[in-house]
Design brief:
single chain, 158 residues, alpha+beta, six-stranded antiparallel beta sheet, 33% helix, 42% strand
C-alpha cells in the first residue's frame, strides 16, 4: 500500500508539468518572433521620424551644427563633444515614446539637469564650454522610445 501511495504521489506531481508542456508546446514559434520583431522595427522607425521631425522644426538654419544623432531611450545619448572654450552652444533634445528622460551635463557649471518628457516636446539646454564636457541623456525607469538630439554653436560668451 505504501508503494502504491508513492507512485500515486509521483504521478500527481508530474501530471501538471506534462499537461503544461503539452498545452504550451508549439511546433513553429518563429512566426510570432518574426512578427513581433518587425512590429518593433516599424514602431522604432515611426518614433524616430516623430523625434527627428520635431527637432528639424526648431533647428535654426543660421546656427552651426556640431553633433547630432538619434538613439534608443534604452541606450541613451552619451557624448563628449569637442567644443571651443568660452563659446556658447545649444543642446536640443526631443524624446518620442513613453515615460521620460533626463539631460545631465558635467561638469555641472557647464549645463545642468533637465527633464525631457517622451511626448515629442522639444527641450533646450544652454551649454558653455569651459573645458571637457560630458553630455548624457538617460531614460528614466520604464521609459521607451527614441531620442533625437543636436548640439549647435550659437555664439561667444561676452
Amino acid at each position: 500500500m505504501r508503494r502504491r501511495g508513492r507512485v500515486w504521489l509521483l504521478g500527481c506531481a508530474l501530471t501538471p508539468a506534462l499537461l503544461l508542456t503539452a498545452c504550451t508546446s508549439n511546433a513553429d514559434p518563429a512566426p510570432v518572433a518574426t512578427h513581433r520583431g518587425g512590429g518593433d522595427a516599424q514602431a522604432e522607425k515611426k518614433l524616430t521620424d516623430q523625434a527627428q521631425s520635431a527637432l528639424d522644426a526648431v533647428t535654426d538654419q543660421g546656427s552651426s551644427m556640431v553633433e547630432s544623432g538619434v538613439e534608443r531611450v534604452s541606450d541613451g545619448v552619451h557624448t563628449r563633444p569637442g567644443l571651443a572654450h568660452g563659446a556658447a552652444y545649444k543642446l536640443t533634445v526631443v524624446c518620442a515614446g513613453e515615460g521620460a528622460a533626463e539631460i545631465v551635463v558635467a561638469p555641472s557649471g557647464a549645463g545642468g539637469r533637465r527633464a525631457v518628457p517622451c511626448d515629442g516636446s522639444v527641450v533646450f539646454e544652454r551649454l558653455t564650454a569651459e573645458g571637457a564636457l560630458k553630455v548624457d541623456v538617460r531614460g528614466t525607469p520604464g521609459a521607451a522610445g527614441m531620442i533625437a538630439w543636436r548640439i549647435d554653436k550659437v555664439g561667444s560668451q561676452p
